[in-house]
Amino acid sequence: MTSASKSDDDRPILRLGHSPDPDDAFMWFPITGIAGAPPALDTGRFRFEAIQQDIESLNRRSDRAEFEITAISVAQYPHVSDRYAFTSCGSSMGDGYGPRLVARTDLLLESLRDGAGTLAIPGRRTSAWLATGLMLGDASKVQATEVPFDQIIERVAAGEFDAGLVIHEGQLTFQNHGLVLLADLGAWWTKRTSLPLPLGGNVIRRDLDDRFGAGTLREVTATLLRSLNFALEHRDQAIDYALQYARGMDRALADQFVAMYVNKHTLDFGPTGREAVRRFLSEAAEAGLVPGSVGVDFINPTD
């Protein structure tokens, strides 16, 4: 039985939330299909339905455990760890690079920390904002306003805000709008810790083992890993699909962006990635920025 056969119509659907950006689209199209077409891979006893929303919306929806599988900010994990665990694959990590603070003119970061400037951010549960809080030391006075991630650059360029915290493709395109770099959060974190900056993770709802039988979490994680490997092995096809989410990027730049965030840590957090997650959340908890005393669990694929 293949994933395209009519007899599969009664299979349970697992909803997979992901951001509408090139790297997430690149990873998951092999199991979710394209424009109503069957998926490229046999997905076994489950079907996968892609639900695309900005990461802060996915963070908030994970509070209610709406989706069986979803991308979330690593910063969100302490808020939902009782209902979700990380899958070992699907992470987004910046190894010496990451979200960026940008502005029309060169500003002192201290001016933002002291409340002398306004800052557009993509969400208060994002890892980018959490890393900003750690870097500034105290973000309590920052005049931060949540703005849809794909509007931040244009609204900073228009003078509505003094600075912006950019994620996704904005990390590569902000200069096209006449903005300057104030700080690269990934570079700051890696220089300080010698670890990659953990930004996004893929999580799976813990109750799937109860609903569908022991081993389901590992089984589904194995399917996710196959999707990733298929995309990497069929890179041209995957980039073709991802281009529709590549706002302001040509094919070469979209390919560069995908390479930044679909890397060895995406296939498996590995010891370094897992340590990065634990340290990031531990430091944030010590600073009072996220709930403390939270264990971090990772689901490995079926052997």
Task: Give a nutshell description of this structure.
This protein is 40% helix and 18% strand. The protein has 14 helices and twelve strands. The protein has helices at residues 22-32, 55-63, 77-80, 109-113, 127-136, 152-157, 170-173, 185-193, 208-212, 216-233, 235-242, 251-261, 264-267, 270-286, and strands at residues 13-18, 47-52, 69-73, 84-87, 92-94, 100-103, 118-121, 143-146, 163-166, 180-184, 197-205, 298-299.
Structural write-up:
The protein has 303 residues and is an alpha/beta fold. The protein folds into two domains: 6-93 and 197-299, D-Maltodextrin-Binding Protein, domain 2, CATH 3.40.190.10; 100-193, Periplasmic binding protein-like II (D-Maltodextrin-Binding Protein, domain 2). It has helices spanning 22-32, 55-63, 77-80, 109-113, 127-136, 152-157, 170-173, 185-193, 208-212, 216-233, 235-242, 251-261, 264-267, 270-286, and strands spanning 13-18, 47-52, 69-73, 84-87, 92-94, 100-103, 118-121, 143-146, 163-166, 180-184, 197-205, 298-299. Helix 1 links the parallel strand 1 (13-18) and strand 2 (47-52). The relative contact order is 0.19. Mean pLDDT is 92; it is low at 1-6.
